[in-house]
């Protein structure tokens, strides 16, 4: 057998032509040699020396004969091939050497670094004044030289132009500003300013925009017309919103879209006003367009193709529409950040006041950032593909469902040999802590009130996905259904988020993140104080999270959601009354694995809170709660960055793109980028078609593993089929799905998503593609360019990335041109980087986000002063394995790192007792002279007296020992707490319903 293996290996080496090289090796050769250069005192200087060889050579740097070693001023990256010196000092001037050496030889390159002579900036390429037609692209350039190299900034009408979230695109080196579609509002004086440490220079240019058309429009649109249109737009949006509310009250949940919309609408109520203002504004623009077109005979050259009519309105009319819609004033309640006793220690629920200079950075209910300017068909708000038949690079964009069917969906699965399914589950848990994009306010069109599931037309907010005549969803669906998948656009927000009055005017459509951007445990605690209060046990004053029932191990489940019309009932039995669970994120019920994660973190909160109460008898419930919330947020940060990201993103990519933590940077904006919300959906390619469920011997439980489509919104299965333990074992003891170019997303998510009785299921990949277009994300190649990767202009060039010829041919058949490939589709098809699950484009976008999340978080757990050094040492001990052990019902062995998979053997598992534990004694606070010191017995007596009575979910007070029955639970008051179990008669479910076969 061994001989056969050796022979096969030699044969493979022979056919690849590498046998000799494998034995002989290769001496070092420079691929990039440093040259003489100059550096400015106090500035940063970067030196590069690259070499290749076999084995890979080691690189050594010397300055004036002395070996350079890493320090606070000398930083090495990319296997020592890059040296960064900051700040550069006079002592650093002199001769440098770069040596590359392996076992076959060594080479050396010598060069000098001199002290640069300072020079004031000089403008060498001044911007030129221009005259543009309406809708035309305009580019202004500015070049400057000086020592140190001057920084260039751009100004419009005396106001500095921001780099992000505006309609203007400023190049990476700041030498060019591009106005994609010039409007009357862009006419004015532009200035570039070059500045360094010893001076500055500036130059100006004037942009004029032809006003022939706008002059005609000014005669048609009057102030009275604007007021009438604003009122009509408000009425249209309010009517559609009211129709959706009424439908949600009356409609039976008999299809997946009803379920999905009702769930999301409940979470959307708190952000309705924020999104409604933008919807009213956009509806006003649509009405104005119709009004103008009736009064004008436009020739082909009057208005550039797909230019929004917002572009031709006078500024006063734009301001009127902003005021009438609510966009002008803004609806976010601002925290004045004055309570520094609180803000220095704890996070606000909505993320405000983390950055004290920019209090809304990372806050909830704010617009998403953009890495690139958006791509809308009309430059304002309509997605690409909105206008049927429109060509891009000579080809129409493919139908999102067709891309999913032909390219993405797979029935074949290959397991990952090294990583466990917990990689996917932790990723979803983290994603739900960071992002939740506000959905459309309504399922009715603003134009004529048509219900989105009763039309296949593109009528805001309806952007449905067409189904072809032979689509299985049509063949297997109910008779008479429309040939499309219902899809509503995500909601929008007003303004660009900039402080300047000029740039606050509404430009392109942006989407809103309902959650805080920070990794702060908001999935556990909510992102608003009112949400958190609903989750807390306020009666005991022990800082606990509330619960309704417990497991056989006397450990709590999530509380039931009681106060809204959300319903997670599956069609096992029409009489089954089990409701959804309540958690900090309303998506906690989405699937059973996610429910189990929320459950163990509720238990972990209460475990930590109980210990803090024992250690700090003088703390009240609010202090215990906030300290526990702070600790669990730190746990999530540690696990994500130390354990999960190095395996999800890859250790190499993590080191190069994120790197070591160097402290809080108040100039880093941590807000979630629009691109990140799509890129992180790469994880959909990692999902198995079944959820594994193992007993304590790691054998399938008697109910068996569960197909994914049966695990959606099924809290009753968690309660009746073994609790959280089988699901948790199924996550850490089963392999992750491997992402291959021909095996992308399992067909449980393309053909059975949210499948219910007599319903047509949804298609997750098709929704991902449509969502990227809805958000105005540029094409895949634009992001390769953004990430400094090669851009493919032909299919032949793209063959270097897509090695599977069948996949490449399908791409060509669908998209016609490489420049048309959707961002999400291109990203999931890339070959993974070394030790990563993803390719370079998604790695670039995801790493950008996680670096900003960490570096721009003032309350990051490793930042000085957030925790003591002893506390940080304890947080570093935290692992998912220990959290599972301490909060599962009866889990006693597990692998130390739950993200790694060791096959079917349990020999690598350790006993739970052998795993490191966080020592919470480091959070024991001694009283100062101002404390009212109570002895332990006195304090405990005071608390226990307060807790001898219980209050149930209906507000009824019960005495110690009382028992009572609810509709589906049996409860008892013991030691001041309500302990409940689900009655067995509520869990009798028909496992063989016809819709599940």
From TrEMBL:
It holds the Pfam family I-set. Residues 1-17 form the signal peptide. One of its GO terms (molecular function) is peroxidase activity. InterPro entries: Haem_peroxidase_animal, Haem_peroxidase_sf, Haem_peroxidase_sf_animal, Ig-like_dom, Ig-like_dom_sf, Ig-like_fold, Ig_I-set, Ig_sub. Its cofactor is heme b. It comes from the Eukaryota. Residues 28-114, 121-208 form the Ig-like domain. Keywords: Disulfide bond, Extracellular matrix, Glycoprotein, Heme, Iron, Leucine-rich repeat, Metal-binding, Oxidoreductase, Peroxidase, Repeat, Secreted, Signal. It is found in: Secreted, Extracellular space, Extracellular matrix. Belongs to the peroxidase family. XPO subfamily. Belongs to the immunoglobulin superfamily. DCC family. This is Ig-like domain-containing protein. It comes from Diploscapter pachys.
């Amino acid at each position: 057998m061994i001989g056969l293996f050796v022979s096969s290996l030699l044969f493979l080496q022979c056919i690849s032509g590498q046998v000799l090289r494998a034995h002989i090796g290769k001496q070092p050769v420079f691929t990039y040699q440093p040259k003489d250069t100059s550096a400015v005192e106090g500035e940063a200087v970067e030196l590069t020396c690259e070499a290749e060889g076999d084995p890979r050579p080691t690189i050594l740097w010397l300055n004036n004969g002395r070996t350079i070693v890493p320090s606070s001023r000398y930083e090495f990256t990319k296997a020592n091939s890059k040296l960064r010196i900051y700040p550069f000092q006079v002592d650093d001037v002199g001769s440098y050497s770069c040596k590359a050496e392996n076992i076959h030889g060594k080479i050396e390159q010598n060069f000098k670094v001199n002290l640069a002579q300072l020079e004031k900036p000089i403008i060498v390429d001044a911007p030129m004044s221009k005259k543009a037609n309406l809708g035309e692209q305009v580019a202004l350039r500015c070049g400057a030289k000086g020592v140190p190299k001057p920084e260039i900034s751009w100004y419009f009408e005396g106001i500095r132009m921001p780099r992000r979230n505006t309609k203007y695109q400023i190049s990476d080196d700041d030498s060019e500003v591009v106005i994609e579609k010039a409007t009357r509002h862009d006419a004015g004086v532009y200035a570039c300013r070059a500045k360094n440490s010893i001076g500055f220079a500036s130059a100006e240019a004037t942009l004029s925009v032809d006003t022939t058309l706008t002059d005609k429009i000014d005669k048609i649109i009057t102030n009275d017309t604007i007021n009438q249109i604003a009122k009509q737009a408000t009425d249209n949006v309010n009517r559609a919103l009211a129709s959706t509310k009424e439908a949600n009250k009356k409609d039976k949940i008999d299809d997946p879209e009803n379920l999905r919309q009702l769930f999301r609408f409940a979470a959307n109520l708190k952000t309705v006003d924020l999104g409604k203002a933008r919807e009213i504004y956009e509806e006003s623009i649509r009405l104005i367009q119709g009004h103008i077109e009736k009064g004008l005979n436009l020739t082909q050259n009057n208005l550039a193709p797909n230019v929004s009519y917002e572009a031709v309105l006078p500024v006063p009319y734009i301001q009127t529409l902003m005021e009438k819609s609510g966009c002008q004033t803004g609806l976010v309640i601002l925290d004045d950040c004055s309570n520094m006793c609180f803000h220095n220690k704890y996070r606000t629920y909505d993320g405000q006041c983390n950055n004290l200079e920019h209090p809304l950075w990372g806050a909830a209910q704010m617009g998403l950032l953009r890495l690139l300017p958006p791509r809308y068909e009309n430059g304002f708000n309509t997605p690409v593909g909105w206008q049927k038949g429109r060509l891009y690079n000579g080809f129409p964009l493919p139908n999102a469902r067709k891309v999913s069917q032909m390219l993405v969906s797979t029935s074949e699965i290959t397991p990952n040999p090294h990583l466990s399914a917990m990689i996917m589950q932790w990723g979803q848990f983290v994603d739900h802590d960071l992002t939740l994009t506000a959905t459309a306010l309504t399922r009715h069109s603003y134009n004529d009130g048509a219900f989105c599931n009763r039309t296949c037309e593109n009528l805001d907010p309806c952007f449905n996905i067409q189904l072809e005549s032979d689509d299985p969803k049509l063949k297997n669906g109910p008779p008479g259904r429309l040939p499309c998948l219902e899809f509503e656009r995500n909601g929008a927000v007003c303004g660009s988020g900039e402080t300047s009055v000029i740039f606050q005017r509404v430009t392109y459509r942006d989407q809103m993140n309902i959650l805080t951007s920070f990794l702060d445990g908001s999935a556990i605690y909510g992102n608003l104080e009112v949400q958190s209060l609903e989750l807390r046990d306020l009666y005991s004053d022990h800082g606990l999270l509330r619960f309704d029932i417990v497991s056989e191990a006397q450990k709590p489940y999530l509380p039931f959601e009681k106060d809204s019309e959300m319903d997670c009932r599956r069609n096992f039995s029409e009489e089954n009354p089990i409701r959804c669970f309540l958690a900090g994120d309303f998506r906690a019920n989405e699937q059973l694995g996610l429910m189990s994660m929320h459950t163990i973190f509720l238990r972990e909160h209460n475990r930590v809170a109980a210990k803090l109460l024992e250690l700090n008898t003088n703390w009240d419930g609010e202090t215990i709660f906030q300290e526990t919330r702070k600790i669990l947020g730190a746990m999530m940060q540690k696990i994500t960055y130390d354990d999960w990201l190095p395996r999800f993103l890859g250790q190499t990519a993590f080191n190069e793109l994120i790197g070591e933590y160097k402290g809080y940077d108040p100039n880093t904006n941590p807000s979630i980028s629009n691109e990140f919300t799509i890129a992180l959906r790469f994880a959909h390619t990692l999902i198995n078609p079944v959820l594994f469920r193992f007993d304590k011997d790691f054998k399938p439980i008697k109910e068996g593993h569960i197909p994914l489509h049966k695990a959606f919104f099924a809290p009753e299965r968690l309660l009746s089929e073994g609790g959280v333990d089988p699901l948790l074992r199924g996550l850490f003891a089963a392999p992750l799905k491997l992402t291959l170019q021909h095996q992308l997303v399992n067909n449980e998510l393309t053909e059975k998503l949210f499948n219910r009785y007599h319903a047509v299921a949804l298609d997750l990949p098709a929704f991902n593609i449509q969502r990227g277009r809805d958000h105005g994300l540029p094409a895949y190649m634009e992001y390769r360019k953004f990430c400094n990767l090669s851009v493919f202009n032909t299919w032949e060039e793209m063959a270097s990335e897509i090695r599977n010829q069948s996949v490449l041919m399908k791409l060509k058949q669908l998209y016609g041109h490489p420049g048309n490939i959707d961002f999400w589709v291109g990203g999931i098809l890339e070959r993974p980087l070394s030790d990563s699950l993803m390719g370079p484009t998604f790695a670039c976008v995801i790493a950008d986000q996680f670096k900003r999340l960490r570096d721009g978080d003032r309350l990051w757990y490793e930042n000085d002063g957030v925790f003591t050094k002893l506390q940080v040492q304890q947080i570093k001990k935290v692992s998912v394995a220990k959290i599972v052990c301490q909060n599962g019902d009866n889990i006693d062995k597990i692998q130390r790192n739950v993200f790694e998979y060791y096959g079917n053997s349990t020999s690598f598992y350790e006993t739970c007792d052998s795993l490191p534990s966080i020592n919470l004694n480091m959070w024991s606070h001694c009283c100062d002279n101002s404390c009212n010191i109570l002895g332990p017995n006195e304090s405990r007596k005071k608390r226990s007296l307060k807790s001898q009575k219980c209050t149930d979910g209906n507000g009824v007070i019960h005495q110690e020992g009382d028992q009572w029955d609810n509709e589906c639970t049996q409860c008892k008051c013991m030691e001041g707490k309500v302990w409940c179990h689900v009655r067995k008669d509520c869990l009798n479910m028909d496992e063989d319903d016809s819709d599940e076969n």
